[in-house]
Amino acid sequence: MAVDLGGAFCLVCGASPPLFTDGMCESCSRERTTLMRAPDNIPWTRCARCGATEVEGRWTFIEDEALMDDLVQRHVTFHEDAEDIAIGMMAQPITDRHTLLHVQAEGVIDDLLYTEERTVRARMSNGVCLTCTRRAGNYFEATVQLRSSGRRLDDEELTTLRGTLDDVIGDMPEDPMFFITKEGPVQGGYDVVLGSKGLARAWGRHLVQNHGGQTIETNSTVGRKDGVDVTRLTLLYRMPGYGLGDVIRWRDAMWRPTSWTKDGVILERVHRHERTGASWRDLEHAVVLARHRELTVVDVLSEDSSAAEILDPMTWKVEAVALPWDHESGSRLVLARIEGEWLALPRVAHDRDLLTKGP
Q: What is the overall mean pLDDT for the chain?
């Protein structure tokens, strides 16, 4: 082949332009340029206890299809000058541990379109994640104690409070330390032993915001590691002896708690239009006369300006009750059974669901 030494030519075979990668013609460029590089085997690890998968040093739960896509993204590389890259992958399970990944890719390098295929093997190995390792060793950092002021928590209250932990975990970013080492009823309440102090504190804040009460933290030193004290947290959550919508006696009057505050509760008086705030200490000796879940909603049979006739839900006899100060003509009544008598209550926001359900 005659070569024009005065012009450009392929550095490999001497062909005339057009020239592409590293000054080579199209044929030599395609022969010596690789679009995609992939290892023969891609190892990955799954926890033999819980099924979590290790992804870039973190243990997480991931679907197999998403995992295979992630393995390809992290282990398959492309030519540094490639543009407009498109990639496709098909996973072919061979055994429980081995999966063939058929990878197809195309891309443009120096104005030439390249299309390549590779088959790699994803190989699973068994491991044990940090969470399962610590669970097996009964590791814990915090204990949350669920209690109430001046009384025992009943089963319904314990179920409600315990259920909020699942909500808190679901709303927080995933963390391998968010696990429960053990839990169960104890004298006067319920204890939950957790793998994370942060989770314990987040749960405590949630309980106070949604159920009132107070938390008290104590820390104990259990050893030293790398020159730093290792401590464990005990968080006591004390639920108020009353709930929102209950009827309580306080300072010789009847009140209904309507909302929680940082330091106590907002109260509305039963017999007149009055609202006030009280601290936890103020209400230490408050007496619960009727719980919200025990209240009853009834229809009014007849009424005048001060009283209404209702059908007693216990005896099915017609009874008269005094109307609450906020009563609107024709509306239903919320009743509490107090000291053997029916008392019609002014409505609070917590009654909304009760009024919707009705008798």
A: 88
Backbone angles phi, psi at 211, to 5 degrees: -130, 5
As a whole number of Å, the end-to-end CA separation of the chain is 102
Spell out the domain ranges in the chain: 1-33, 34-129, 138-239, 247-357
What is the predicted pLDDT for the residue at 2? 46
pTM, to two decimals: 0.64
Tokens of 182: 């053990």
The 10s digit of each residue's pLDDT in 156-171 is 889 999 999 999 998 9
Phi, psi values for residue 330, rounded to 5°: 90, -10
- Cα–Cα distance, 104 to 86 (Å, whole number): 8
pLDDT above 90 (res 60)? no
> What residue has token string 């190892």?
43
3-state secondary structure the chain: CCCCCCCCCCCCCCCCCCCCHHHCCHHHHHHHCCCEECCCEEEEEEECCCCCEEECCEEECCCHHHHHHHHHHHHCEECCCCEEEEEEEEEEECCCCEEEEEEEEEEEECCEEEEEEEEEEEEEEEECCHHHHHHHCCCCCEEEEEEECCCCCCHHHHHHHHHHHHHHHHHCCCCCCCCEEEEEEECCEEEEEECCHHHHHHHHHHHHHHHCCEEEEEEEEEEEECCEEEEEEEEEEEECCCCCCCEEEECCEEEEEEEECCCEEEEEECCCCCEEEEECCCCCCCEEEECHHHCEEECCCEECCCEEEEECCCCCCEEEEECCCCCCCCCCEEEEEECCEEEEECCCHHHHHHHHHCC
